[in-house]
Design brief:
With about 150 residues, this protein is an alpha/beta fold. The protein has one domain (about 1-150): Ribonuclease H-like superfamily/Ribonuclease H (Nucleotidyltransferase, domain 5). It has 5 helices and 5 strands; from the N terminus they run βββααβαβαα. The chain has a 5-stranded mixed beta sheet with strand order 3-2-1-4-5, with helices on both faces. A hairpin with a 4-residue loop joins strand 1 (about 1-10) and strand 2 (about 15-25). The two termini are about 25 Å apart.
Length: about 150
């Protein structure tokens, strides 16, 4: 099963701290969580203006988020994200190091942007609302991936 995801995070060039994560499965099931373990004082003005207002509340610790994601995606997920590099690191760090990911999980993430480049940077659906809410962004990733599945 494919899982499309996005994260919101604080980064300073040395570390990446999870703020929120959203996932949607290929069959439409959704998951959303916010962390209670980031330092909001470290957030850039951009994050404060564009991400914090979209948070829903009810934050969990990273261990609880990791356990919930593992239950949501099961033993053999395929992960997709848009400009996936930082999102993948943030997801992996929920489990510790990449080597501590659940045993049957891949050690890599598929990147929607790379697929778009491979196909000639096709015009894709524009996200209409919810920018920088992790679940809304994940829903857009899934919709865009579905639109690219058509023959080209």
């Amino acid at each position: 099963m494919r899982y499309f995801f996005d994260t919101e995070f604080i980064e300073d060039g040395k570390t990446i701290e999870l703020i929120s994560i959203g996932l949607i499965s290929e069959d439409g099931r959704e998951f959303y969580a916010e962390s209670n373990e980031y330092d909001a004082k470290k957030a850039s003005p951009w994050v404060k203006a564009h991400v914090f207002p979209k948070l829903k509340g009810g934050a969990l610790d990273r261990k609880a988020i990791a356990k919930s994601i593992k239950a949501f995606v099961g033993p053999q997920p395929e992960f997709w994200a848009y400009y996936a590099d930082y999102d993948w690191v943030v997801l992996c760090q929920l489990y510790g190091t990449m080597m501590e990911l659940p045993e049957s999980w891949p050690k890599y993430c598929m990147d929607l942007k790379q697929l778009m480049v491979e196909r000639g940077n096709l015009n894709v659906p524009i996200q209409q609302a919810g920018h920088h809410n992790a679940l809304s962004d994940a829903v857009w990733v899934r919709g865009t991936w579905l639109s690219l599945r058509r023959p080209y």
